[in-house]
Amino acid sequence: MNTRYCAVALLLALSGSVLAADTAGLPVSNPAGMWLITFGIAFLIAEAALPNYGVIGLGGIVMFVIGALILTNAELPVPLMIGLGLISALLLIFLLIRALKTRPRHTVSGDAVLLGSVTSVLALQAADACLGWVHLQGENWQVASTQPLHVGQQVRVVARKGLLLEVAAADAVTVGD
After folding, report:
1. Contact between residue 43 and residue 56 where contact means Cβ atoms under 8 Å apart
2. Tens of pLDDT along 80-115?
């Protein structure tokens, strides 16, 4: 939520600077080009601050290049405009690669994460030492075992049946189970 406000504030600040440059009488033949370049830069900055995958940055590069092409009549060097466009594109590609590398690739919820997890027994039911409770992934689970359990024992989850986890002693379970 705060990044949205920062992006809007940055956009307004850049718009104000363009408006000031437009009214100051700088040698700009077409102020639309300066506006497009400013919004292109703002979109590239927003791309770095917002959690998306290149849509805003691609729009920023397009606006930047079109604005630069409009300003070619203002006698700005063409290699400078091309260089800035390429630098912007490389920055966007770098940001996209970094964003894709940070994406989680492993399962973070469901049975796939529970199975094989190791935890310790918190409590046992008074009537049956094969039933107890564990704390796993932020939740308390009821567990059942074929062997008697004791408080503090390390157990590994081998199956899940509804809200009941089937466990075995952590040292007794092989990796293939």
Report:
1. yes
2. 767 777 887 787 788 778 777 777 776 666 777 788
Q: Is 124 helix (H, G, I), strand (E, B) or coil?
A: strand
Nearest to 173 by CA among 155, 160, 161, 159: 155
> In this structure, is residue 154 part of a structural domain?
yes
- Establish if 116 belongs to a structural domain: yes
Residue 85 and residue 120 in one domain: no
Number of Cβ within a 10 Å radius of residue 50: 15
Quote the number of domains for the chain: 2
One domain for residues 84 and 34:
yes
The partner residues of 67 in beta bridges, in order of sequence, read none
Residues 6 or more apart in contact with residue 78 via CB below 8 angstroms = 72
Ordered alpha helix ranges (H), the chain: 2-23, 31-49, 55-70, 78-102, 111-114
Exposure string (b/e) for 108-140, b if CB count within 10 Å is 16 or more? eeeeeebeebebebeebeeeeeebbbbebeeee
pTM: 0.41
Same domain, residue pair 26 and 65: yes
Exposed, middle or buried: residue 64 (CB in 10 Å: 0-12, 13-18, 19+)?
Answer: buried
- Domain coverage including residue 119: 111-169
